[in-house]
Amino acid sequence: MMESTPQSSWLNERSSILLVSPPYACFTHPQLSLPSLTAFLRTHGIPTCQQDLNLDCLDYLLSEKYLKALKITAPQRPAGGEDGAFPEGISDFWEFPQLLDFVASGIDGAKSNLRRAETFYDLEAYRRDSTIIRLGLNAISAAFYPTILADMGIVIDAQYTIKGLRSFASDSKKNPFLGYMQDIWLPWFQENVPSLVGISVTYFSQVPGAITLAELLRSYSPNVPICMGGAAITELEKTIKRQSDLRQLADYYVFGEGESALLELARSVIEEKPLRRPGNVFVCKGPLLPAGECCEQGVSSGENVNELPTPDFRGLPLDRYFSPEPVFLLFNYRGCYWGKCAFCEVSLALRQSVRLRERGLVEEDIRLLQKTHNARFFLFADDAVSPKRLREISEMHSRVPHPFLWGCEARMERSLGLEAMKSIHAGGCRLFVFGNESAVQRVLDLMNKGVRLQDNVRIIGQASEAGIAVNLQNFVGFPTETTEEAQQTIRFLCDNKDSITSIAFGKFTLFDRTPVFERPEAYGLRVLPDKGEETLLPAYAFKPSEGMDLQQVDAEYLRGAKRLARVYPWNDLFLDGPFGAHLLLQVGHHGKTNLGELPGCKLSYEGLLRVRPCPASDIKVFSGGGNKILISPLAHILRGTELNDSILSECDGNTSVVQICGRVGTGLSGFSSIEEAATRVALRILDMIRLGFLKTVSATNTRAADVSVQFSGSNEIGDRCAGERG
């Protein structure tokens, strides 16, 4: 990648429309929004450039040159604050300055390995490389703290109010995206000024980056019109219409589906003529319509899905996503064919009745992407795919030029049996994402899921038996749910672990325009009024009148998350989460639905601490001053098992005294006591020293006989350790 431009091959010609996906979002595969809009505009003769600014920005930040230039200064610890006051993994970069050089020197190699099949599919190597990527994100977070970049989300210190987000956008000390956008992206933009900039905001994690981009364009190119749209923008429709500050950020907003609306807007801007059919376009300023004018509810009729072209991924840097080959997103539906779940808001941007794309057109989409990009992997980005369409996709597998593997979200419909599952697997399906939500029939009925628990158990088992990986989506805290019912869901996930590949586990959130929000009294809760300035989040505060209170929900969630982390130790292995492109790629390659069977995947407590060959170059020791050292990446892998102890060492001649403190953060998962955990870690360190895989700060080539182990608060542990060592 050229340093002077964000991407050397963005434009082959002057484009009239620039479509941008801002940070922060998934960087393992391209999203569907930009290619869908780009295809529609290009089909209608509008020159269009699409740009994944999220990928460009992260590829730049996660580089050796950038990380080595980072200035990391520890913030002042709160008065009376304890060591755990700052997030684990981030504070290491303040305490051990050498750690930054270690991560910087390995970050380019880690990205390269994730893009190469031979290292990506080696799960030992994958864990190492993904750990380096996460350490890179931690380093950036340490430099811009209190902003925190995680695998799939961003946490900022400012409230999600327009005032707080605009302050974040211009704060070079807290905004990690600002430097790249201002110093590298903006000069390129000013040399390639389009007629219109469209900012696509699919996820709420992209809102801070979108506002940063809009503020820069307002400051440096005020005459270029800006349009914002996407699923997150649609959820903010009411707020945008109420807040004048938001209307200053963009000239136009698109609420709902964007193809026809953006086409009409592009034509009006290019031809400098008024909008003939405003459709979903809300006009904030400009000559096209009086400010604030739009059609009723800001919506128009939904798109005819059978007239939409195949998403066009041309122009996106497909070889630079953090994967060995692209995973392409396609769609079968606009809207959800079930569409009745009481808690769900995911189809808010698709507010018309459900529309199904003809199967022949979906097959043609696959054929075209195979011809253009040699596509082999697809994720269908539908809210749910019906059993009939599942069978139709599996039949396409043998008709297209090349076999392909795919995954999708689906409902656990009673008609899905073992033979159907086997047929769907034979047709290339390797991943089902099921909305399990709860393992209590009463709660499922209140949610209006329309399923039976006994069918769910059968379908999960038969999908696994057929060779299809199963991800289950779950949450606790639905209104009226009791403590026992929440625990029943957690027990269900533990009892059926042999049939479940991965899980998602969270807490109930009250969203706008859902059945629960519209009729809260029917669900035993009261919606609380907003306090202070309106936030740019669609969730609402509420107070339950039945079932668990919010404190009990928090307690059951934390208790369940710890237990499930022990049962599914690989659940946080993949950079894009437990049901993303990386899971599909790995399951498709290895042919296993039980990840614990794969070498290097089940690096849980026992697998981690037993002796395994480990290159000396993979173990580093960093001095923090005094008697503190950090052993990496061992320390970070240990943190993945929720063992948050610091490893301290002081050297005396040829003897290394290794001390493991009793301080823990979220608890010791997988061990009956801290003494057991300390013993096992000490044995692991002794083995590495004995085998020459670990060198201490001042004592090198130390023999096991020269090493003693001390633990604070208990001499018995050292005796037990010596006894086990024999």
Secondary structure: elements and pairs:
Layout: E1 17-21, H1 33-43, E2 48-52, H2 53-61, H3 64-68, H4 92-95, H5 98-114, H6 117-120, H7 123-144, E3 148-149, E4 154-155, H8 162-169, H9 178-191, E5 196-200, H10 207-220, E6 226-229, H11 231-235, H12 237-242, H13 244-249, E7 252-254, H14 259-271, E8 281-283, E9 327-330, E10 333-334, E11 355-356, H15 359-373, E12 377-385, H16 387-396, E13 405-410, H17 418-426, E14 429-437, H18 441-447, H19 453-466, E15 469-476, H20 483-495, E16 502-507, E17 510-511, H21 515-518, E18 525-527, E19 539-540, E20 542-544, H22 550-567, H23 581-590, H24 605-609, E21 620-623, E22 629-632, H25 634-640, E23 647-652, E24 655-660, H26 674-690, E25 708-711, H27 716-725
Parallel strand pairs: 1-2, 1-5, 5-6, 6-7, 9-12, 12-13, 13-14, 14-15, 15-16, 24-25
Antiparallel strand pairs: 3-4, 7-8, 10-11, 17-19, 18-20, 21-22, 23-24
Kindly list the characteristics that best describe this protein.
726 residues; TIM Barrel; 3 domains; 27 helices; 25 strands
CATH level 1 class label of the largest domain: Alpha Beta
Overall body shape: globular
Judging by the overall fold, what is the CATH architecture of the largest domain? Alpha-Beta Barrel
CATH topology of the largest domain: TIM Barrel
Strand content: 15-25%
Domain module tally: 3
Average predicted confidence as pLDDT: 80
By DSSP (H or I, 4+ residues per run), the number of helices equals 27
**Strand neighbour order, sheet with most strands:** 2-1-5-6-7-8
Using only CA atoms, what is the Rg?
A: 27 Å
Low-confidence region ranges: 1-13, 79-84, 294-299, 603-679, 686-726
Helix content: 25-40%
Report how far apart the termini are: 55 Å
CATH evolutionary superfamily of the largest domain:
Aldolase class I
Report on the biggest sheet.
6 strands, mixed
